[in-house]
User: Fold these one by one.
Assistant:
Number 1:
Amino acid sequence: MGFLQATKYVASLPQVNIDELVCADVHCVLLDRDNTCVPQGTKQVPPEVKSWVERAKHAGLRICLISNNFFSTDVAQTADEFGVLKIDHAMKPAPFALWRALRRMGVSRDKAVLIGDQVFTDVLAGNLAGVSTILVRPQSVTDLFYTKLFRIAEHRVLNNVTFEGDELQQ
């Protein structure tokens, strides 16, 4: 598998099957914030995302929010709302924040999965860190100017990829 390929592709975070994660012996979910949990340009967590996080925690999964966002208060607010640990200023795709999160959570790489919406930050970081990755589609078509540039390249990387659950969103 290449560094830009996710382990799995799912249309949205709420469609990621928690039972499958538990059966795969995943103990920890490293969760991207912007456009994975919170639509870009808002501070509101959609109810279906909050419900997914609650169900994941109830299933025994430990969760750490890992965000490149430099607005620490926004990341902290989301982490508090979820009742999870957080790391902001993560500098993904560098894997260091993921390794730090795994140490804080007391989980080995083979028991973790990173879920995010960007190939060149989330998937690449997860693969460099040695954890499984799930790429979800972004919640919003609104992106920061530099993310728009990455999305153009992403389109080429994802050219023939099918996302599980896309048929449910049409």
Number 2:
Amino acid sequence: MTRKLDYEIIYKYLRKKDFGIITTLNENGNPHTTGVLYGISDIENDLKFYIISGKKYHKIKNIQRNPNISFVIPFPHYIMRFVPSSMIQIDGLAKLIDYDKIKHEQFFLRTRALKTNINFVDNDPDNAIIIEITPNNKIRGHGLGIGMMDLRKNHARGLFYSLIK
């Protein structure tokens, strides 16, 4: 049975990371997957993810054709590497918006890696674009909020979902 986790718990996990994997669909309907750094809205606002990208990448062209995306945030086990990674999966819609440093910089100040993205964009601001992801109402995942011994007894116990408020 799939467990329900509170949105606030999921949000805290999402804030701990800055790396995710976005999947878009190419012109043939085949998946195109790439790793990205992401910023996230404050918990008081509607949940949104923000990704800085260059305008010429495949993911941008794919989103222009079809805004449906899937976004996965992995949570690897750094000490016990033999344990499968936990993850959060979000399906939603992506929207391309012009990069505005004053408006968007706030989402990218959380970690050193995200700040590096801002510096990269400063070198070529005309090529920068923001991918804004609005998740569907349900977040799914596996392995968070459960002990490894419980997972070992029954791997399916790791499944969870959360409803976005």
Number 3:
Amino acid sequence: MRAAVRMAVVIILPVLIGCSSLDNPQKQPPGKLAPDFTLPCLDGSKRSLSSMKGKYVLVHFWATWCAPCIHELKSLHNLYRYLHHDRFEILAIALDDSWEAISKMQRENNFSFSILFDEAGVTRQSYQVTELPLTVLVSPEGSFVSLLQPQGSALTERLVGPQLWDNEATANFFKQLLNG
């Protein structure tokens, strides 16, 4: 019985808190310039963070095999539809092994923001992504922006684990940010 309970914790806990990986995350300090990247999009074009200068960019790392990631993408889609603005973009960076699963997921959900593919894992490494989903906000100047953790009052530059993006408090935060 104890072995069954331990097995359930090993299987269920990562689903409840997000999909984790191997290493301990190392934090990027707020105000530090975010590493630039250029990655392919599903439509065949390429996107770079540096081409988004002048905009707030929510950079979101995810994978199709991470159930909390897919749920969060749907919430991000709602936020993006509500807030799509000249000064706001979402770049969702998939950490899958191939385009096939990413393309299938996009066909099923029709997300309106850019889906990028980090096939070589270079962007994952430069952002020190060790858990999924992971989200950072980059300022119009290209530096990390501190965000308030949903569970407390501490500021962080990395939101690890699934977040609810399509709620009034989040929408108001981004409206103030964009209009400020």
